[in-house]
Specification:
Helix content is 5%, strand content 66%. The chain has 73 residues and is mainly beta. A hairpin with a 4-residue loop joins strand 4 and strand 5. It starts with a strand and ends in a 5-residue tail after the last helix. 4% of the residues are buried.
């Protein structure tokens, strides 16, 4: 099960920086035991300024915000 998680890492009157992460949990069982694992992987950084917003992937390349977080722009 993958889902996106956002976290604001910086916010001031000039701009806001948000990290977008993929959050994945897996559960299972083996020999009468249950287990759960999880991972958190960075996907992009979104920068919002008063007059514009843009997103950068982990290679520092511009990406479409709506392809990462539909409805975020």
């Amino acid at each position: 099960m993958d889902r996106l998680h956002t976290n604001i890492v910086f916010d001031d009157p000039r701009f806001m920086v948000t990290v977008v992460q993929s959050l994945e949990f897996r559960t299972g069982s083996s020999n009468h035991m249950r287990f759960m694992t999880g991972s958190l992987q960075p996907i992009a950084v979104i920068v919002k300024e008063p007059d514009k917003s843009y997103a950068l992937n982990m290679d520092a390349r511009l990406v479409d915000i709506d392809s990462i977080m539909p409805g975020a722009s």
